[in-house]
Amino acid sequence: MSEKKDIKVLIGGKVMTMSGYESEEYMQKVATYINNKIDEYDSMASFRGASQDIKHRLLEINIADDYFKARDRVKELEKEIKIKNNELDDIKHDSVNKAMMADEMKKKLEQAKAELQESEKKVIQLQTELKGRQNAGSSRK
Predict the structure, then answer these.
(1) What is the pTM of this model?
(2) pLDDT at 53
(3) Contact (CB, 8 A) for 41 and 59
């Protein structure tokens, strides 16, 4: 586990000390996010005239809203991943079945080729016997 760090960040024009086990870059990213939210609200005339307490509550509500939307999006993506993984499993299963069928068909093809060769040998043997009988029959005449 990494050690706890204290870093100074600027939030809302005030220097603050943040403590945490995350990297300094991460904590600066959090401070930047909060500053962006403050800037977003400061651009609205109704927000500038509100009391500090109201400003804080609005920022908290907005950040909580962002969090819940992000959490819901993560859940949606996790469901999509699960569906895609199931589809991938089905495809893999089908692929294995098709590979097994292809192997079986190759074996049957090899067996059919071997039977064809045996049949061809038999035909040649029978043709040879027939010629021999025909030659024996014509030499008797």
Answers:
(1) 0.62
(2) 92
(3) yes
